[in-house]
## 1
Amino acid sequence: MSVDSALLEILRCPDEHHAVLTYDADAQTLTCTECKRVFPIRDGIPVLLLDEAIEPDTSAKEESA
């Protein structure tokens, strides 16, 4: 199931920075370009709840620093 392109243009991260989201059609997810949270899309509906988002893996960043 795909998400309407017009909807994708207006959707933003629900966190305070309201950054643009990138769409992954294969994984059916939206990823914030700033905080890197991954939001699921269920039955064609983006679930933009911070509690439902997958947090980015920060351990890889910390190890490389």
## 2
Amino acid sequence: MDEFDVVIAGGGVAGCSCAYNAAKLGLRTLLIEKNSFLGGAVTGGLVIPAMKTGEKKLNHDFFDALVVAAKNFDAQITYLDGNEGWFNPELLKIVLENLLQSVGCKILFESTIFNVEKKSSDKFFGEVCYKSSLNTLSLPFISKYMVDATGEGNLAELLNCEFWQDSRRRQPNSLRFMMSGVDIGAFCGYLDEIDKDRGVTNFAQIEGEWHFTTAYTWDSNKKWALEPLFKKAVEAGELLLEDADYFQLFSVAKMPHAVSFNCPRLKEPDGEVFGRSKSIINGRATIFRLANFCKKYLKGFENAFISHIGDIGVREFRRVKCKYDFTINDINEPKTFENPILYTDYPVDIHSNKRDGSTLREVRTYSPPLESLMVRDVEGLFVVGKCLGADFQAQASLRVQPSCMSMGEGVAKHIATQINK
């Protein structure tokens, strides 16, 4: 039976950050990932670029190391607003593996924890189901600490932990995609002609290549330059009205002719057995219509094609009850905590499938405490990432990548301090 100081379930950026820092600090570290790659929503779900979270930093070592490593693999750019989190999603799989291996972290792909319990006051006993070349096998393990970085609280569920029951409202999932073969220089020139709002559309040449971001939604809070095109396509029957609810585009680091789409939002019927499956199927049909719309209406997309469709992107599923309930009140009136885990001023960002139903509210810099990552029901169990111990509105500000990386790093440093006492 293998024994570890810390076992981390989930190899998204929160789990990778936790594993990297734990191993770097000398802990025997195992990272378990259900897929055959690291990066989670970033690499599998095409959630790029990382959003900026303010100038004040805490537990930012992993993000900084990731930027340096990505530069070495030619997988990163720094955008014109100073955001270093513009990554190449495919190369980032390699970058993350190299980072974790460089500090001695053990990685187990295509694996899930299917049984875990705490038989004594200081150790977890569990089993991992993993694939070998011929069979599906079981690996028993012992660990002093465990971290749930699954994004869905799967480890917490196995340990019968309590979840928040504060809202029936859910943020819609997304199904991101990419198109290649785009003449991005021509598209940026077109954007310059039609959209002068640099709060929505901006572009620049970076390292000899054109990069940009632009958007359109059916919400009425802004005047959108792309609105006439969407209206024309809907009237012609080329798009459905709901296809035009949210449309956000980014260029991609070190992919000169590729564009990443933060859309479509998925419409999942509540309570239906086949609801999620239907929404994914409908999402891919929407992607096909949006791609044809781009080819017909957007200059530079004439010869473009769909090159990637990501995994389903989950903004919010469920959140674990922790030792401190971090709520929207702690953001509205920022408190000073004894054990801050990160600093952020990222807005409260709540997506909705209803017209004018979304929220993007600016906030002052705030910091949640470590106790919002310490699971209430099980000593020695932590949660990092989007299923942290926060209410629905607070999670909508904290779910972005840099914050999730800081959560993982802060927990790893705390565990190392406890072990080395």
## 3
Amino acid sequence: MRISILTAGTRGDVQPYVAIGTALQSLGHEVRIATHRTFKPLLDQYGLGYFSIEGDPRKILMGDVGQRLLSTDKNPIAMMRHTIAAAEPVLHQVFDDYWKACQDAEVILFHLLAALPAVSIAEKLNILAFPLYLQHVHHTRHYPSAAATPLTLGIPFLTELYNLLTYKMEDWAFWYFIRPVINHWREYALELPPYKMNPFSSKEWQRRPFLYGFSSQVIPKAPDWGDNIHITGYWFLPKVEDWCPPNRLVDFLQSGPPPVYIGFGSMVQRDAEEITEIVLQALELTKKRAILSTGWGGIGNSDLPDNVIKIDFAPHEWLFPRMAAVVHHGGAGTTAAGLRAGVPSVIIPFFGDQPFWGWRVAELGVGPWPVPRKKLTAKLLAKAIELATNSTDIKKRAERLGETIRAEQGVDTAVRILTGHLTNGHTTGYFAH
């Protein structure tokens, strides 16, 4: 079967779909992933088909609108507005690219960021389309939307009401800002009528099969979610056997106790030197050894003490289990890797779903409470690192959770569910009308 997978965003948004695509391809399916060209080497590494879509997420985040997006850590409406504003110059081209990538497809699998073009294309082609998401979108009173800041209001009823309202607010904001973009594209590119209402609020959408790529130990299935919602476990890539760590990294790891990993992934910052100074001051206060990962975070080239080294890249599955703790921005992918490694996590959220994952880490007792980037100081970071590395309870809980996550086989579960639907030939309700 010919399967097109539509995804966009950072490496953490793309890599889980490479894992799904690799597993489907091993079963004989013809898989093509439509994503940014910066990830083509990753797809080539696993022998997957590739279709290039417009947009460089790094350049978008580096722009003025992208930098405003990074500062909207507590306002989901502002975040939605800045997200769409940052991407709008290339959205129509991205949608066109997705359309081209699906011309001969029999099935579409899609990331949250590709949802509207995916269901529109499926409607036009009358083919199957499955949502495979890394963040939950179904309403529940038990926890808030992944885009909202979690709050505990003292009275359970108020907390539950707040949680429900976060989804309503997110749905409204999303539809308000994206409606003119998607409707214009549906009319000129697909010759389909415009949406009169948000298709994701329809009963048909709520009934379709949904696959969530996270662990039920991290986000348990809410009692008010239906049987069509499947929490499969995380979607991790197969281990890269030919990766060899540089000698200086191996020598550093062997020269002392496990260090702390510090990296902020794709959170490109113009104040990289400031962040670096905060990190180095915190390490001086804690006297901890550390590995700084540049990633897209642009950690500066300040002179580093002997107990700190900087690396450009190391696979998380190889590096994280060797750490005393991992300090990062709280992206879905990095959070999953830290939890799987079974070591404590310290989350410094910038925006989006990162405060939510930081909240879950703290609620699960596998790390301290998150420190938002806006409030980050050397003292606060040092305090969080000390707690994460010295608390026996946090370390034990992190170890137990890591063991559970490593045993879940999320990719196999997801592929088994998908294959079951494809084999049964279910079609009703799988695409928007």
